[in-house]
């Protein structure tokens, strides 16, 4: 863990990153994932349909909100909401939806890059390997 989490005695997250909440994905990686998902035409199934926790009114509202940006920003908002709505909506669940429903292997590859990244198991920030712990 990073120094700040160690001093705060932060609860350590699982060594299995599939069990991590979406909110703990390192920011830079999360942005990449969202940017890819905003390329909705690559998806076999629209993101909000695939995640399945948005009713039509909410989905239409979110789409309208990002209409002027050509839909950019939708994935960030939607994944944030989905991830915090239910504890089971974790990284592993997202990967499964991406693979099975949306057929977005490109996004799964980004998640797997993050999984091999050395991050703090408390707050999720990247830990620089050059600094010995
Ligand atoms: Zn930390």
What does the model show?
The protein has 133 residues and is mostly helical. It contains seven helices and no strands. The mean pLDDT is 94. The chain binds zinc ion.
Secondary-structure map:
Blueprint lengths: L2 H6 L18 H11 L9 H5 L4 H10 L8 H12 L5 H10 L4 H11 L18
Question: What overall form do the CA principal axes indicate?
Answer: elongated
| Uncertain spans | none
Span from first to last CA?
Answer: 9 Å
Order of helices and strands: HHHHHHH
Count the helices. How many? 7
Q: Outline of this structure?
A:
49% of the residues lie in helices and 0% in strands.
Key terms:
133 residues; mainly alpha; 7 helices; elongated; binds zinc ion
């Amino acid at each position: 863990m990073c120094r700040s989490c160690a001093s705060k005695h932060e609860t350590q997250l699982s060594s299995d990153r599939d069990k991590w909440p979406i909110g703990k994905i390192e920011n830079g990686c999360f942005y990449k994932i969202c940017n890819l998902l905003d390329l909705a035409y690559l998806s076999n199934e629209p993101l909000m349909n695939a995640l399945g926790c948005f009713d039509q009114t909410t989905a239409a509202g979110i789409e309208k909100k990002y209409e002027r940006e050509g839909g950019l920003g939708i994935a960030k908002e939607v994944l944030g909401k989905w991830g915090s709505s239910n504890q089971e909506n974790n990284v592993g669940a997202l990967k499964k939806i991406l693979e099975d429903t949306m057929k977005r292997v490109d996004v799964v590859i980004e998640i797997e890059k993050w999984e091999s990244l050395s991050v703090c198991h408390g707050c999720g920030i990247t830990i620089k390997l050059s600094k010995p712990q």
